[in-house]
Amino acid sequence: MHCAAKYGHAEVFNYFHMKGGNICARDDNGDTPLHVACRFAQHTVAGYVANEKIDVDSINKTGETALHCAVESADTRVVRLLLQLRPRLDLPNASGDTVLHLAADSINPRIVPLLVCLAPPLHLRNIREETPLHVAAARGHVDCVQALLDANSPIDAVEQDGKTALIIALENGNVDIASILITNGCDINHADHHGDTALHIASKHGLLQAVQTLCHCAVTVDSVNANKKTALHLAAHYGHVDIIRVLLLARADVTLRGDDGLTAELVAVAAERLEAHSLLKMVKSQEIREEYISQLYPLDTSLRRIKLKLLGHSQSGKTRLVQTLHSSRGISSFLESVTRRISDHYSPSSSMKDDGIHSTNGSFVSESNNNSSFDLAAAAGSKYAPPHSQYTRGIDVQTVNINGCGEFSVWEFGGYEPMHTCYDHFVGNADCIHLILYRTSDPTEVQYKQILYWMNFLKGRVTPFEPIGHCGFSSRRSKVIIVGTHATSSLFPQMNQEGEYVSSDIEAMLNTVRLRFETHFDMDHRLILLDATNPSCIGMKTLKMELAKCRTNILAKLLKPLAILDTVVNHLNLVRKKHANFPVITWPDFIQLVRNEINPLTGDAHCRQIVQQLQLIGELVYLRNDLCDADYVVLNAEWFGTHILGQLLSAEFLSKASPNGSYHTSSLAKIFPEIPEQSDLMTILEVLQLCAPDARTGAHEFPVFIQTEAPDSIWRPYSLKEKERDTVYGGVRILPMRGMERSLHSTFPRIQVALRRSINDYQPAKDTQLHQWSECSKLVSQDREAVIRMVGDAVEIRARGPSESATSMFYFMEDLINLVEHAAAEVGPGISLERHFISPKHLKEHREHPALFPPESMMEMQQRESLSVKGTQDEEELFTDVVCFGSRDVARHLTLGIDVGVADLQMASRCELACLLDPPHAMGRDWSILAVKLQLTDQVPDVDSTGQSLSRTDQLLNEWAIHHPEQASVGNLCRILVELGRCDARDALYRTVPLYVFAPLEDQFLLETNDSGVVSSCHSSSEHNPINI
C-alpha cells in the first residue's frame, strides 16, 4: 500500500484496502500511507485516506505528521486537503520545525498564507531557536514575510546566535524583505552575539540600498562590534566605495580604530582597496568633510532659472521676440542678434565647396562674420528651400534675464520643417513654459493651422501621466502661452481699457484652441498681441506678467536645488573649455567628473538629481542611449542645437547632401573637422536616431537626407500571371487620432531608421533587402515584400506574398505594423494611432484608390458577430481576408477587440471616455447613470467623494474590472454606452481600442512559419529578438 501511495495508483490502493489492507500500517520509518502520499504530492491517494477518518496528527519516527510531509512537497492541493481535517499546527519534528517553519522555507510561497489563516502559534522555535519569521527572512519570499507580520509574528525575536529576522534577511541578501521589516518597526540597532548590527551586515555584503534605508532611519552609524569595528571599517575592508559615501554622509566617524588599531582609511590600505583609501584620505579633515556633506543638502531657495521654449513657423517672430526680451533696445538688439547668428555659422572650407559639404573653421567659436557662408542658391530651387535667408538653424539656446520676470534659459526652435524630426529629444517636459508664436498679419486660416500644428506637436511629444483627472485632464499639464506677433494699430484699431489690442476673430479662434487642448495644457485666457520691435508695447508687458507668474508657479512645484548645483554650474564652464571641440561625455564620466573634481561624496542618486536640475535650467542635455547602457551628457546645449543639428539639418546642407543619405564616418571629418574622433559624433547621431549603420555598405544611412524619389515600378503586378494569381495581398494605413493631422510626417525618417536597424539585427540578411527613398521604403524578405510609405497623413504598409504562406504573411505584416507604431510612439508618446485596413481585393486589382476599413467598421462588425466587414466603398470582404491574409489558423488565435478587458484599456481610450462622460449631461447620460448600468451603485459614494481631482468615469471602469471581471469587456461597455444613448463615447472607444490581439496558444503554430525578416521589438529596445513565424 505504501508503494501504491508513493506512485499515486489510487485504484491499486483501493483494491488493497478492500482486501483488508491496513490503511494505518507503518513502514521502517514510521510512515503511514498518508505520510507517503503527502510527501510525494499524490493528491488522489491522500484524499482517499483522509476520507477514512484516520488520525491526521499521527507522527513518524522523525516526528513528522502528514501535514509536515505535505508542506515539504510544496503542493498546495494536498495542504488544503489536510487543513480541512483541522490538524494540529504546533507539533514539531525532530528538528523542532513546525509546519509553519517548513512552509516559510518552502519553494511555494502560497502555503504560509494558508496556514496563517488558521492562527497557528507564531512564537514557537526550532532547535536553532528560529521562529518562522527567521526562516522566511532567510528564504526570501516577500509574501510569506508580510503574511507573518500581518499575523503579529514577533519581529525582534532572536535565534541562537542573537540574530533578528532583519540581520538574517541581510545576511542572505534579501534587501526587499529587510525594507519590509524596517517599515514594520523592527529594531534596526540590535546587535547579535558578535556585536554586528544590521548596518555591519549590509556594509560588509555591499547592500547599498539597505545601508541607505538604515541611515535614512537614523541608525546608530558608529556602533562597534566585538572587534571594535564599525560599519565604515567593514565597507573599507571590502572596498564598497558607494557605501562608504553613504556612511560618511551619515557622519560616520573616520577616526575610530578597531582592536587592531586601524582606522577605516588604514583598513582600506591594508586590504589594498585603493579607491576606498583615496576617498577616505580626501575626507580625513572634519572641516572639509562637513563642507562636502553640506553641499549635498537642498537649499531653501528655488532654481535660478527655468526653460522658456519658443515654437512657431518660420517668420513668426521668435528671434525678434527673444532679442526684445533680452533688452529694451528693440530693433538695434535684433540687428545685433542677426549679426551674432550669422557669425555663429561657419564658412565652408575651400576644399569642400566643390563637394557641397559645409565645414566649420575648426572651433565652436566662430572666426568669420562672412554672410556669404549661407549658400542658399542650391537650396532655393529644391524642396529644401528655406522661407528666408536668416531662418533659425536648429535650436538656438541662450540665457536671458528678462526685466521684471527673472532668468530664463530660452530655447528657440527653428521653424524649418526638416529640423522637426529631432525636436522630440528636447520637448516633452512639463516643468517649463512653451510659447507658441503666430503672425497676426497672416490670414486667420493660416494662423489657425499653424497654431494647431504646434499644439498637436507638443501634445504628441508629452507623455501622458496617471491618474486621469476630471473630464480627462492630465495630472501634469504643460504650460502654453499663445502669442500673436507683428501686431500693429493698423491691423487692430480697437483696444481695451488697458490699451491691449482686441480682435474678436482671434479671440474666437483661440477659444476653440483652448477647448480642444485644455485637457493637456494649462493655457492662459488672455489675448496677447504684441509688436516685438517695440519693447514698451502693452502686449509685451502682458506677456512679461504672464511669464513671471508662470515662472513662480513652476519653481514652487520643483524640488529645491542641491547646494552643490551652483558649484557644478561654475565648474562646467571650465569643463566646456577642455572639451570645446566635442563637449560630450558619457554618463559614467560625468559621475566621475563630479566626484573627482567637485565633491567625492556625491552618490549616483545625487548625480541624477544634479543632471535633472541642470537640464531644467538649460545647462546641458542628457541623451538616453537605448542601444546600449552608455548614456551621454552634452555639456553645451547651444553647440549641440546650433552647430551640430542646425548645420546638419539646414537647407544649405540638405540641398547638397548625398542623394541616398549614405555617409561613412570619415565623411564627418569634412563637415566637422575640429572633432577629434568622428566615430564619437556618429554615435551621438545614432543615439538621436538620425541615422543607422548599413550592414551592407559599412556606411551610415541618414533617412532625413535622402532625396531620391521612389521609382514607379516598386509596386506593380507580377509579370507572371500564375504568380500574381497565387499571391495574397494585405495593407493598412496607420493614422494619428482625429484632430492630430500631420503628426506623423516628422516621424517617418525615424521609422526608416528603425527599419534599417531591424534589418541589421536580423541575422539571415542575405535573404532580406531593404531599399529606402524619400518618404518610402521597400522590404523584401524571401518571397514576401512590403512597401512602407507616407500617404497624406498616414503611414501606409502594403504587403504581398504566396498564398500558401498566408500565416507567414500575417506575421510579416504584424511585425511591420508593430515596428511603425513603436517607432512613432518613441517620437510621440502622446499620439494615439488608428489602424485603417486596406481592401486586399482592391490591392490585388492594383486600384489607385483602394477601399479602407476604418476602426469603427471593424469594431461594428465584431459587435454584430459578422464574418465580413464593409469598407468605405460599400463593398464587403471577409475579416480573415482583410486582417489575416485569408489564414483561418491565424484567425483562431485572435482575441477580438470587443473581447479585450476594460482593465487593459490604453490611456488614450480612458481619457476620451472621461472627457465625454465626466461632465454633467442634460439628459443625465453621464457617469452616474453609467454606474447604474454597470451595477456599481454601491461604489458611487466612494467615487463621488474624490470630487473633481480624479475622473469618475475612469474610477467606475476600474471598479467594474475589479468587481465584474468576466463582464468588463470592451464589447459589453460599448453595448451599454449605446443603451445609454452615448454613441459618441462608443465611437471614441471604437477608434482607440486595439482591433484585435494576437496570442497563439500552441508553440507548434509558430514552427510552421518562416522568419519574417523584421525584428518586432522597437529599435530603441536594448534587446532585439526576431519573431520566428
Count of individual domains: 4
What is the first-to-last residue Cα distance? Answer: 51 Å
| Oligomeric state as shown | single chain
Total count of helical runs of at least 4 residues: 46
CATH A-level architecture of the largest domain: Alpha Horseshoe
CATH superfamily of the largest domain: Ankyrin repeat-containing domain
Shape: globular
The helix content, as a percent range, equals 40-55%
Radius of gyration: 35 Å
Named CATH topology of the largest domain:
Serine Threonine Protein Phosphatase 5, Tetratricopeptide repeat
CATH domain class of the largest domain: Mainly Alpha
- Beta percentage is 5-15%
- Structural class category: alpha+beta
| Biggest beta-sheet profile | 7 strands, mixed
Low-confidence stretches: 329-374, 1001-1010, 1016-1029
The number of strands is 24
- Mean of all residue-level pLDDT scores: 88
Folded structure, characterized:
The protein is of the alpha+beta class and 1029 residues long. The chain has four domains: 2-285, Ankyrin repeat-containing domain (Serine Threonine Protein Phosphatase 5, Tetratricopeptide repeat, Alpha Horseshoe); 305-331 and 393-557, Rossmann fold, CATH 3.40.50.300; 712-889, TATA-Binding Protein; 902-993, Death Domain, Fas, CATH 1.10.533. The chain has 46 helices and 24 strands. A hairpin with a 2-residue loop joins β17 and β18 (794-802). α9 runs parallel beside α11 (165-171) and α37 (855-863) packs across α45. ANK repeats lie at residues 29-61, 62-94, 128-160, 161-193, 194-226, 227-259. Keywords: ANK repeat, ATP-binding, Kinase, Nucleotide-binding, Repeat, Serine/threonine-protein kinase, Transferase. It holds the Pfam family Ank.
